[in-house]
Amino acid sequence: MNGMTDTTPALAADRVDYARGHLLESEAPADPYLLFDRWLAEAFAVRDELAALPGLAGRVVLEPTAMTVSTIADGRPRSRTVLLKERTEQGFVFFSNHQSAKGREIAARPLVACQFVWTPLQRQVRIEGQARLLDRAASEAYFATRPRGSQLGAWASAQSRPVEGPEELQAAYDKVAARFEGGPVPCPPHWGGYVVDPDLIEFWQGRPSRMHDRLRYRRRDDDRWDRDRLAP
Fold first, then answer.
1. Is 210 labeled as catalytic in the residue annotation?
2. Domains of the chain
3. Which of 210, 214, 218, 227 is flagged as catalytic?
């Protein structure tokens, strides 16, 4: 028994031959941030194109800012997906509960890996670096822009802790909603941003016959970047 049913696709036989693009050194800037910004903008453009197609609106999900963040805890890698909220000269910014599993893991060991996957463009970006807390004022300024429901949820959810069921979560949310009824919702002291300061950024472009393009940027001590090509 292999655990597969009659409706399970034949995974070993599934094939996609990538041929959408090519990543050449002559078209890659010396600064990897510039290439990332260009690729991110193109991912947004493709998302908007898909959303505009008849019959596909609301059925095709592409989150250009979806970023998988991997940490290490007890010698084990752990991954989850967050949303990139800003790309600054210091790195890649996301927000979370500092008392969550990833928050505790980053506090204990700030080395992280991140990954973006833009399947319609047949592209990936892989990042390695250190995560640090975002300035508190910047976290509070961003929190103030969030929808009120998300603000309340940040107070209500003891992220990554076990709960008995959805009823417990709803009760916690209702309690917080009553607490802040009629007034603004402040940023919780245990919630805020992280900046991933990269020392490695790799760009992957799918190519035919699995001869993919891989350009790797590694930051030097003078904050400039060395670039090389990796075999697929």
1. yes
2. 16-144+194-229 (2.30.110.10), 146-186 (no CATH)
3. 210
